[in-house]
Design goal:
The chain is mainly alpha-helical and 301 residues long. The chain has 16 helices and two strands. It has three domains: 87 residues, 434 Repressor (Amino-terminal Domain) (Orthogonal Bundle); 68 residues; 94 residues, Winged helix-like DNA-binding domain superfamily/Winged helix DNA-binding domain (Arc Repressor Mutant, subunit A).
């Protein structure tokens, strides 16, 4: 995994546009809907096109376009999303997959989904990701999957989260290439996608279920040993969920996935020194939470 992947391209700057500024995405939009809506908004804002221009090209009212790009109103039919994607020159296939998934999560029936897209023929022109996207996916896929499995125990949901990550990256590939570090950009997409499907307790990712699937637990032979190890694992995982984001990710990759520090550095797009520092601070915090009495007794002696 210790490989560099950060093609150098000039930064993409949003073009100035006249007229009223597009409002934010409404707070009621779900994570699956945001998965394709945010890249579409991002592409629109960078395109230099105005809602008036798009309205004329698409023969759709500006108010409807604004609703679509803000996630207000009813969940949009695919033919409208496809029409806007065509004007913005976005790849259709990842957008369509994400749109279908969000439609299902919006409780749209299978018949509605099929009827909504039956008039739109998807060409194969945009069916294959860019070559560098495919190379990047091959490089990081297995490690992304191992990370996701820690948080999402359902195999199908885990596969979906990782697949969605690469679809979102495909939609945002130009922005990823223009970012300071493509690996760091991609990791932020993976983390957001995984966390959207991770159960949370008091605003923190719930890792307790993963404690029942630890290597240490399976290596034990007696029920007493398993119960003791399970209690220790539950306490450790509960404490881990309180770590800051970067420290939690480093600990998951290092201690639960068994990835070497240099490879964690390459995977997350951060320096090796930062990885070691995050791990050191995380271990110190966990020891202070899990073994405070032992430390106090040792200092008193």
């Amino acid at each position: 995994m210790n490989k560099s992947f950060n093609p150098s391209v000039p930064p993409v700057r949003p073009a100035a546009r006249p007229g009223r500024k597009l409002g934010p995405i409404t707070g009621t939009v779900g994570s699956a809907h945001c998965a394709w809506l945010e890249p579409m908004r991002e592409t629109y804002l960078l395109s230099g096109l105005t809602l008036s221009e798009l309205s004329i090209r698409m023969r759709l009212a500006k108010s409807k376009l604004s609703e679509l790009l803000r996630g207000t109103g009813l969940y949009p039919r695919w033919e409208i999303v496809f029409s806007l994607a065509t004007e913005l020159q976005m790849p259709y296939w990842p957008l369509y997959r994400l749109w279908r998934q969000a439609a299902a999560e919006a409780h749209k029936s299978r018949e509605w989904i099929e009827r909504s897209s039956e008039r739109t023929a998807l060409t194969t022109t945009h069916a294959v990701p860019p070559l560098d996207h495919r190379a990047f996916r091959e490089l990081v896929h297995d490690d992304y999957d191992r990370y996701a499995q820690v948080f999402i125990l359902d195999a199908d949901l885990c596969d979906t989260a990782v697949s969605d990550t690469f679809d979102i990256l495909w939609l945002r590939w130009n922005n990823a290439l223009a970012s300071p570090d493509i690996r760091r950009f991609a990791w932020s997409v993976l983390r957001a996608t995984v966390m959207a499907r991770t159960p949370h307790l008091d605003g923190r990712p719930e890792l307790a279920r993963a404690a029942f699937d630890t290597v240490a637990l399976h290596a034990l032979t007696t029920d007493t040993e398993r119960m003791q190890q399970m209690a220790e694992s539950l306490e450790l995982f509960k404490a881990m969920s309180r770590l800051p984001e970067h420290q939690l990710d480093v600990m998951v990759l290092r201690r639960l996935c068994g990835i070497a520090p240099v490879d964690v550095s390459a995977l997350m797009g951060v320096s090796l020194a930062a990885v070691r520092s995050d791990e050191r601070h995380a271990v110190h915090f966990l020891e202070s939470v899990i073994c405070p009495q032992t430390e106090t007794e040792g200092s008193s002696a």
